[in-house]
Amino acid sequence: MNETPNPSLRELIADPALLLAFGFGSGLSPWAPGTAGTLAAAAIWLALPAPSFPLALLLICAAAAAGVWICGRSAARLGGGDRPGIVWDEFAGCWITLALVPAGWQWALAGLLLFRLLDILKPWPIKQLDRNIEGGLGIMLDDVVAGIMAALCMQCLRLLA
Length: 161
Description:
By secondary structure, this protein is mainly α.
């Protein structure tokens, strides 16, 4: 695989798909771009008025569905594969987690930490999805599943609290 380097900020601004794929520039972070993308996604989600659950579900589904094309197109343009700087998948996974965690900053923080842990460690079935599905769908799916798993774990913790 002959990968090109990460695009410049100017290239991101010129290409809306790259801008989204690289999380409005957060994916250009030289350290832990996935975590930078998750933090950017959380900042956006938490800065906006809390949507109703049906609206949140609609927004997340739209972001995930669009992400298949956004991430697939951007990865192909840059030489293929799930590049660390492509973080739109972290945006979708983060938003799933935040939409489903109980209210309160402690729950949101715990959910985000759990999401990052699941995304980094990739327990079953996340690792199998990451390894066996290619293209935009493969880039998106492991983070969507990590977001769902984090949200479900947080709901279980809420029941125990």
